[in-house]
Each structure stands twice: as structure tokens, then as C-alpha cells.
Write a structure and sequence with these properties.
By secondary structure, the protein is of the alpha/beta class. The protein has a single domain, classed as 4-Layer Sandwich (Purple Acid Phosphatase, chain A, domain 2), CATH 3.60.21. 30% of the residues lie in helices and 22% in strands. It contains nine helices and twelve strands. The strands form two sheets. The chain has a six-stranded mixed beta sheet, covered by helices on one side. Strand 9 and strand 10 form a beta hairpin. Helix 2 runs parallel beside helix 3 and helix 3 runs parallel beside helix 4. The chain is globular. About 5% of the residues have low confidence. The protein binds zinc ion. Zinc ion (ZN) binds next to loops.
Length: 294
């Protein structure tokens, strides 16, 4: 034992240092998020301050990534067109690929049974698609685990079955897992209890308190399917059942940026309106000139 003791001490110090390093990430976690863009390449040209479009989003995201290279970038679903419009979706898929999202939730607009051309598109392009409460295709993962600096981040995404069924008869044949049971298992099975959970809920209405209560208090919940009026100061980041619920708004008009303060254990959020003060990405604009106003 005497000979082993110094080695045991060294081993203990190594283990403790490793655990401290994980417990005290050096930089805040930054999450960039979008939603409900509906494959708009440019803005809709509507209203007094037109905003949105993937070409403008590219400029804003590239700029923020230079500032925050470890930022996680997520979309909460309905990033393709609301109709079966293969040319518009083809262009949107190519631009979304170029934007290098870390996770793309599957809304009902991305459900492969809704648009037959999506399956080959997803396979060919290769995107980080995530859907946790149904298995519909091997290219779609049920969770995405990321490491950013010292942060471990787990992204899960839930789609309300009724929304999928509205767009696709095929969806009726799919078994959707019970969201509560799936969440309980996910939280229980988390290998590293200090990792950050980001849960996307693509659904009608509010996320129930019962479901929110299953999530760790520091989780970031991101809403999808918000096709209505949006005011970032009112709807952008809310406290519901003691959890942080972020909302990217409608029409891809905003790029959300959520920042987790480790000391205060709280999220804050800023919203960048993607209006015409932000130039569209010139390289992408040369390639993708489709008029996608809807
Ligand atoms: Zn939707």
C-alpha cells in the first residue's frame, strides 16, 4: 500500500482536475437559433421593415461565428417550404448546408413523407437532422451530442404527431414515442450530468408544465411552429415552470442568440432582426436568385 499510495494520490488529482475542468467551462455557452424560415431565400418584401431570408441570415451568422467560434447553431423546424415546392426546397437545402447548422429539427414541412424528393435530398446533402419522438429515416438522428470547448451539449427535438399527420398520410402509420417517457429516459441516461440539454418542441401552443418539469432547470427549451405575431421583448425568452423557453419567432425574421451565464445559472437572449440593414451574402446571392416570396 505504501508504494502504491503516491500513485493513487496522482491519479486522484488527475481525476479531480478533470472533473473541475468539466464543471467550470471557461467561456459562456452561446446558442444561435432560428425557426420557421419556410425556405425563404430573400425577405418577403412585406411590411414597413422587411426582414428574413437565408441570404441575409448567412451574413449575420458568419459575423457572429467570427466573434463566438464555439457557438452552437440550431433551427427549430419548418425551415423548408410549407408546400411541395421542389425547386425552392432544393435551393434552401443547399444554403442550409452551407450555413453549417449543428442541429436541424424536423418540423412537419420537413417530414419526408410530405415531399418524396426530400429523402434523396437529405441523403445527398447530409444534414444534422434531429427528431427524438419518431423514427422515420436512418438519416435522421434521435439526438445530437456536441462538444464545444469544455461544454457538452445534447440536442433533442420533439414534433407534435398531429402536425406531421396533417402533411403526410404516411405519418399516420408511424409510431410516435410518448414524449414524457422519452424525456425521462434521456435525462436519466445522461452520462455527464453537467452537460447542457437543449430541447426543441415543434408543436401547437405552449409546452406543458408537466413536460417542462421533467427537464433540468438550466435546460434551454426552443419553440418551433410559431406562425403568428412575434415581439422579441415579449415572446423571445420566457420563464415557464422555472425553465427557460426561447422562441425564434416567425418567417425567419430574427436570429436569436442565447447565452448561458454559468455563475448565475441563467440564460439571457438577444434577437437580431434580419432586415435590410444587413446585406445579403454576395456569393450565395449570385447562385440563388429564386423569387421565393410567399
Ligand atoms: Zn410546423
Amino acid at each position: 500500500m505504501n508504494r502504491l499510495w503516491p500513485w493513487l494520490q496522482i491519479w486522484l488529482v488527475i481525476v479531480l482536475m478533470r472533473d473541475m475542468a468539466v464543471a467550470q467551462p471557461s467561456a459562456p455557452l452561446v446558442v444561435l437559433f432560428t425557426g420557421n424560415n419556410t425556405a425563404q431565400i430573400s425577405d418577403c418584401g412585406c411590411g414597413p421593415d422587411p426582414a428574413g431570408g437565408l441570404l441575409r441570415l448567412a451574413t449575420a451568422v458568419d459575423s457572429l461565428r467570427r466573434q463566438y467560434p464555439d457557438a452552437v447553431f440550431i433551427d427549430s423546424g419548418d425551415w423548408l417550404s410549407s408546400y411541395a415546392n421542389s425547386e425552392q426546397d432544393r435551393q434552401a437545402l443547399a444554403i442550409v448546408k452551407r450555413l453549417q447548422y449543428d442541429a436541424l429539427a424536423v418540423g412537419e414541412y420537413e417530414w419526408p413523407g410530405f415531399k418524396p424528393y426530400l429523402r434523396s435530398g437529405y441523403r445527398k446533402i447530409g444534414l444534422p437532422l434531429v427528431l427524438t419522438n419518431a423514427h422515420i429515416d436512418s438519416v435522421i438522428r434521435n439526438q445530437i451530442v456536441l462538444r464545444r470547448g469544455r461544454w457538452g451539449v445534447r440536442v433533442v427535438a420533439f414534433l407534435e404527431p398531429e402536425l406531421a399527420r396533417r402533411k403526410s398520410a404516411e405519418a399516420s402509420n408511424h409510431a410516435f414515442a410518448d414524449i414524457r417517457a422519452r424525456l425521462r429516459r434521456l435525462v436519466r441516461s445522461a452520462v455527464d450530468r453537467r452537460e447542457m440539454l437543449i430541447a426543441i418542441f415543434h408543436q401547437f401552443g405552449e409546452v406543458s408544465h408537466e413536460i417542462l418539469n421533467l427537464l433540468p432547470e438550466t435546460s434551454l427549451i426552443i419553440r418551433g411552429h410559431w406562425h403568428r405575431r412575434f415581439a422579441p421583448e415579449r415572446d423571445g425568452l420566457q420563464r415557464v415552470a422555472g425553465r427557460w423557453v426561447a422562441n425564434p419567432g416567425d418567417n425567419g425574421e430574427y436570429l436569436g442568440m442565447a447565452i448561458f451565464d454559468l455563475e448565475k445559472k441563467r440564460w439571457s437572449a438577444n434577437f437580431i432582426r434580419l432586415n435590410r440593414r444587413i446585406p445579403e451574402d454576395a456569393e450565395l446571392a449570385k447562385k440563388y436568385m429564386l423569387d421565393t416570396q410567399q
